[in-house]
Structure formats: structure tokens, C-alpha cells
Amino acid sequence: MAPPQENTTVIKRKSTSGIRRRSLLAGVAALGAAGAVGAATGCSRVDVSGATDGGHLLDDLRRKGTVRMGIASEPPYASINSKGELTGEAPAVAKTIFRRLGIKNFEPVPVEFGALVPGLHSFQYDVIVAGMFINKARCAAVLFSDPDYENKDAFLVLKGNPKKINSYADIAKGNFRMGSGIGYAEIDYAVGNGVKKSAIQTYGDQIAGMEALEAGRIDAFAGTALTMIEALKTGQHPKVTMTRPFTPEVHGKPQRDGGGYGFRIGETKLRDAFNRELQKMKKSGELLRIARPYGFTKEFMTDLTAKELCKK
Question: The whole model's pTM is what?
Fold first, then answer.
């Protein structure tokens, strides 16, 4: 993915969710994970090459009976609720799989999203359970499971969608003003469809985007559908609605991506065992049943693989 746009207008606001999982900035941070881990542990360099024999973490976890899960608080993917309980789609799926692998206890370790990869390599936890988007940069530092969901883009618009905005091409043709998040991939998707950079404003989160919509500063806010569904649950912006989720295209090429679970490089025995259970859940429909209460529907299920996404 291209780097974040630098000449868009930035509307400063405290973000409620930190760095987003598909954020281009987060992808760059993951690429530098080895250096970041070194800084965190007081070493000049950390070897992230991992085990060469498939690793022994699965056996270790079975003996201990507990797996530590690195999470970043961002509903609906993973969070700690007001009762102090671990919740979200990713923990629900991961718990089911780890139980079937003989591990019954789960210890959440909350960190900022940008610290997930360094924390994995400094052994703060055993697996990243945060719906992290899989891309080439992150695959240099993390061994990913296959994705358990495929995200879609959508637009926040005023109710009734008076400008009839359903694609980035619509924004370009209508010379409409678009909002998006700081560093979001949607900025590049829009520019790739002919939207002028000067017509794009960036905001700290979807809530700020909805406020801009209601104030008439933008005509649509672009982002991932799942985070928008969550933002709309607050009910604080009744004049705003969401368009139908879609897979964006640039120059006629679909921009598909998905999120999965991250393991330390070399722990292929654990990753492969995890993937086998995940595939069973996909085929039986159990994955969708577990994910549905968190806003995931059939259109978010995917046949993508980590191997495919690691090439992007």
C-alpha cells in the first residue's frame, strides 16, 4: 500500500480507537517491529527469525493450560468491557479454537495497537488476538493465521443518501468532499479513483466524521464498514447512516484484505493447528455464528489466505 497522503487537511480530535488495523501508519510500524522490540527490551537488535523446527509453543501452552492474548481495545474486534471482561469477535473465535487445541484458560494483555507486534516478540503474550489486517509489511515480522474475516469499505452519509454516493467513483464524478481517517487506506482508494486530494479531509475517528457530515463540511466519510457499524451503535448522530458495504477497486482491481491472528515467526506447528480448526469452523458455518453477534455478516466471511495477503 502507498504511504499516507501528506497534503490533506487534518482535523485534530482525540481518537477513541487509536491506530486502526488497516492504517497505513500501522503497517509501517509493523515493518520496523524488530527495531521497536530492541528499543523496548534494551537490545540493539532482536532476532525475530523464530524456531526452525516448527516451534514448541503449542506443547508449552497445553502443559500450562493458559494462553496469553495480546489485544488492542477496538470493538467489535477485541476489547475489555465495562465489567472488565474480554469481549469481541477475535477473542470469541480464538477461545473456541484454543479450547479444541487443549488450552482452556485465557489471559488478555491489553496494549496499544501499534505495540502489538513488539509485544509479541518481547514475549508479553503468545498470540495477537486483535483482528489485525494482514499485509506484506506485517508478514515480515509476524506469522499469521489465515484471515477469519474480510473487511469491506462503506461510506457514512446523511440519511437518505441525498448525493447518491455509493463508490469512490461517485465522489470523483460529483466533485464531492470526502472525509476519512488519518493514514487510512481509503484515502489512496479515493485518489486512485480520481478524487482530488484537496477534496479529502482527515479526522481522528468516525465520530468526528459524523459531526463533519452533520455540519456540512463533507459529503461522505470513508472507512471500513465494521468500524462504522460500531460507531453508529452510539445513536448520537441520528441524521447519519451507512451505505452498503463494498470491496473497493482501483483501476479495475479489487482491493481485498482481511484480518487474522498473529504468532511469532517459526511457530508453524501452532499456526497450522490453529488454521486447521479455523477451516473446520468456516466450512461448518460455526465461524459466522460466533462472529454474527459482533456485527459480522456473511459478506464479511472470506476464502482469502494469509499467503495471498502477505504478497500485498
Answer: 0.81
